[in-house]
């Protein structure tokens, strides 16, 4: 019984879903369109004998309806359409004709009769009788005109209709559409006298007239319909258009004489001529419109003003946009909310492409809140995003005049000029800013960075000296070190760093850079001494002891000196101070994999032979020790709520092949949004010859973290086609296009981090490579059998890169 009921319920559910997907089905009780069932009958087709039986039943039912209530118009129409559906047109005509007799005052029945009789002479006779029976029906007159084939007869019908219904705007519109512009103007004059409430007729007449006459027309329109916002907006647009015309003509042509048809009303109406500029008249018009339209008689909602603002943007009327913002968008807002709401409006309109409207809002915001730094800043950013350099510089120039002590505005001003290629102007801006704000660190750093970027190292050194005397912060000394490194002055960099470690012993970056300076010079023992000094058990070294990079640097030095036991000891001590650093645990696991193997012999035996898998060549003890270390690191990081995606990714790669799939599942459960884990899963599928799944996970990885350059490089290597079955996959045009797209997306995402990426970038000769070249170079390390990646991860270059300080961030 249970099974039967379950099957029945499931069957009912499936059927219900199928029914819901059928067109026209509805979950509501009322499934018949009560207002459109008559129209639906016109499109029905008879398909079986059952339909014929239904026709007979419906015929009896509708006959009963029309005989019981002969004034029931829908009954007559339905009965006629039923016969039309059955194919008996004569019966349909007879029924609808009888309906016209019994319901002679109904325009619907007459229109249906005209439709059934067609557009021939019979249809004309029906409509002729209709206008006799219902002479005030606009629909019937319009149909009578529409049924005529010549424009002359259509005009005659409409003129006759207007004699009977002179106030019908619909009839006037239909007649005017049949005329040319000169005749239409005459008809519009008569039309607005008869149908004074037809806004579109007033506006159509105004568009056909010259400026002065159009003003007169709109004045009369506003006298008739003072609460119609469209007339006010059109009047404002007329004034702005006239201003454009005057500015584009010569001085002689600007002497515009009034039209001979202009009467006295022009000087006293809402659009009265004044000596002020047209721009002022536009603002006064909108201000008066808002005042009238916001009264009790007609309240225009803020949403309507926004719609009108968008329309003016489309029509390119910037001054009208500004006036609407100034008066219309703020009329219903509390004074405390105006700035906040207008900012939201500006961003929203800009995202929709209404740039003129958004610009108008920012201009009004600056007018209302000239002391708001955020308003100036957002207005400048808007112009920059719009690629309007001239407007952006104008806003920025005014903003720094208004806020001479705000470094954010000065820096934005200088960067805008710098990005435009105007280096000299950017330098002048920063010099002006520094003369008024010599104690602001950010301005000094920006000025020094500009000189370094232009390779004017002499000017940069001069700025560094002045900055050290005026500010003297650790950031200034870091930039000084970067200056000397960029200029290739290793000795100068060392002097700056020695001075910095004495002045700022708690800043670990100085110690790290000094160690790297000695190491690049080949003095490993002195580099080791400096590292040990930075990590001494002294109060001033406490911050340094908590920096994993310094410990990693000391470990690399011990490894490079060939003392691996000391390297392990360094990492053991480091984990006491930094127990939640994934990099320390990662490096510890890799040292376990290397075991007691001599690095020179290892690189000769394994790194030089790409056919040898390092993980398979070392014993199980080393692999087990590495895996155990990674698990300990994951546990420590998890307890401290520290992300450890790099450890999970490493675990997937170092596990024995039989356990890699299980580890990938564990990793995704723990870090389902980590790009490192996703890339490791993708590489696993790649090794297992499952390219579709591999590509899907590579794409997830770059979507999860677009700045992860390792993920982009692995995707590039995958698409290049390093599958054994398709060795030349990357040589066809389609694949080359895919590879170019990957490079472009990587550049757009500004990918800048990743273990392999940083190791390759920090290598000698690669510092100046751009993102595209570096991506292709890094992709060579990623391979389907992971041998290149295994060897590179265990290389000294990879270890050293884990303590690398990005030169751009110094």
Would you give an account of this structure?
With 810 residues, the protein is mostly helical. The protein is 71% helix and 0% strand. It has 46 helices and no strands. Helix 28 (508-520) packs parallel to helix 31 (548-560). The protein is elongated, with a radius of gyration of 41 Å.
Question: Could you outline the blueprint of secondary structure elements for this entry?
Answer:
Layout: H1 2-21, H2 37-42, H3 49-68, H4 73-86, H5 89-102, H6 107-117, H7 121-133, H8 138-146, H9 151-164, H10 169-177, H11 181-194, H12 199-207, H13 211-224, H14 229-247, H15 278-293, H16 302-315, H17 318-328, H18 338-351, H19 355-368, H20 373-385, H21 389-402, H22 407-419, H23 423-436, H24 441-453, H25 457-470, H26 474-486, H27 490-503, H28 508-520, H29 524-534, H30 542-545, H31 548-560, H32 564-577, H33 582-594, H34 599-607, H35 614-617, H36 620-639, H37 645-654, H38 657-670, H39 675-687, H40 691-704, H41 709-720, H42 733-749, H43 755-761, H44 771-779, H45 787-793, H46 796-801
């Amino acid at each position: 019984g249970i099974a039967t009921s379950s099957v029945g319920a499931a069957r009912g559910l499936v059927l219900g879903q199928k029914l819901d997907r059928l067109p026209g089905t509805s979950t509501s009780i009322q499934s018949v369109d009560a207002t459109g069932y008559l129209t639906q009958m016109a499109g029905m087709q008879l398909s079986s004998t059952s339909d014929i039986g239904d026709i007979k039943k419906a015929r009896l039912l509708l006959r009963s309806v029309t005989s019981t209530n002969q004034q029931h118009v829908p009954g007559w129409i339905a009965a006629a359409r039923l016969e039309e559906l059955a194919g008996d047109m004569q019966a349909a005509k007879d029924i609808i004709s009888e309906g016209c007799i019994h319901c002679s005052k109904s325009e619907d029945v007459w229109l249906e009769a005209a439709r059934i009789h067609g557009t021939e002479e019979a249809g004309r006779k029906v409509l002729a009788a209709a206008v006799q029976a219902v002479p005030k029906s606009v629909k019937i007159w319009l149909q009578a005109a529409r049924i005529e084939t010549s424009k002359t007869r259509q005009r005659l019908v409409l003129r006759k209709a207007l004699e009977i219904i002179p106030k019908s705007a619909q009839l006037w519109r239909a007649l005017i559409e049949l005329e040319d512009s000169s005749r239409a103007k005459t008809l519009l004059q008569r039309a607005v006298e008869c149908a004074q409430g037809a806004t579109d007729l007033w506006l159509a007449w105004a568009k056909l007239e010259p400026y002065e006459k159009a003003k007169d027309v709109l004045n009369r329109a506003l006298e008739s319909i003072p609460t119609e916002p469209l007339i006010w907006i059109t009047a404002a647009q007329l004034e702005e258009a006239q201003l454009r015309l005057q500015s584009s003509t010569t001085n002689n042509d600007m002497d515009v004489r009034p039209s001979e048809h202009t009467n006295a009303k022009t000087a006293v109406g809402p659009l009265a001529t004044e000596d002020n500029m047209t721009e002022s008249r536009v603002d006064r018009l909108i201000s008066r419109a808002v005042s009238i339209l916001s009264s009790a008689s007609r309240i225009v909602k803020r949403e309507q003003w926004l719609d009108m603002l968008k329309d003016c943007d489309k029509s390119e009327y910037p001054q009208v946009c500004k006036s609407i913002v100034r008066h219309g968008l703020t009329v219903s807002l509390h004074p405390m909310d105006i700035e906040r709401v207008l900012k939201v409006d500006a961003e929203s309109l800009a995202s929709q492409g209404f740039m003129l409207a958004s610009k108008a809002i920012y201009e009004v915001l600056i007018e209302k809140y000239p002391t708001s730094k955020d308003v100036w800043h957002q207005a400048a950013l808007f112009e920059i995003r719009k690629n309007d350099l001239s407007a952006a510089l104008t806003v920025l120039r005014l903003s720094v005049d208004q806020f001479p002590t705000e470094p954010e505005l000065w820096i934005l001003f200088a960067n805008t000029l710098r990005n435009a290629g105007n280096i000299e102007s950017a330098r002048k801006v920063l010099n002006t800013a520094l003369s008024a704000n010599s104690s602001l660190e950010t301005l000094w750093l920006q000025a020094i960075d500009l000189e370094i970027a232009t390779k004017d190292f002499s000017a940069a050194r001069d700025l560094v000296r002045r900055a050290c005397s005026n500010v003297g912060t650790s950031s200034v000394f870091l930039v000084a070190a970067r200056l000397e490194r960029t200029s290739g002055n290793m000795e100068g960099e060392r002097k700056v760093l020695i001075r910095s470690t004495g002045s700022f012993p708690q800043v670990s970056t100085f110690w790290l850079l000094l160690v790297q300076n000695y190491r690049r010079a080949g003095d490993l023992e002195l580099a080791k001494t400096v590292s040990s000094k930075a990590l001494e058990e002294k109060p001033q070294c406490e911050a340094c002891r908590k920096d994993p990079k310094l410990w990693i640097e000391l470990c690399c030095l011990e490894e490079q000196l060939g003392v691996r036991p000391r390297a392990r000891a360094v990492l053991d001590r480091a984990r006491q101070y930094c127990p939640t650093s994934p990099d320390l645990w990662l490096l510890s696991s890799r040292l376990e994999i290397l075991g007691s193997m001599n690095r020179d012999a290892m690189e000769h035996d394994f790194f030089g032979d790409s056919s040898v898998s390092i993980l398979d060549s070392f014993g199980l003890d080393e692999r087990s020790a590495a895996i155990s270390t990674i698990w300990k690191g994951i546990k420590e990081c998890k307890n401290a709520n520290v992300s450890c995606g790099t450890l999970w990714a490493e675990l997937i790669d170092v596990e024995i092949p039989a356990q890699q799939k299980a580890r990938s599942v564990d990793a995704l459960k723990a870090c389902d949004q980590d790009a490192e884990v996703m890339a490791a899963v993708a590489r696993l599928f790649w090794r297992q010859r499952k390219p579709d799944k591999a590509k899907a996970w590579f794409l997830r990885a770059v979507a999860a973290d677009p700045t992860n350059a390792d993920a982009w490089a692995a995707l590039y290597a995958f698409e290049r086609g390093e599958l054994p079955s398709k060795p030349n996959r990357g040589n066809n045009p389609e694949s080359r296009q895919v590879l170019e797209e990957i490079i472009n997306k990587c550049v757009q995402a500004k990918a800048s981090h990743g273990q392999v990426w940083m190791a390759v970038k920090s290598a000698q000769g690669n510092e100046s490579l751009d993102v595209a070249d570096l991506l292709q170079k890094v992709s060579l390390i990623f391979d389907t059998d992971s041998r290149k990646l295994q060897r590179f991860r265990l290389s000294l270059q990879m270890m050293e890169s884990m303590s690398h300080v990005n030169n751009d961030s110094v």
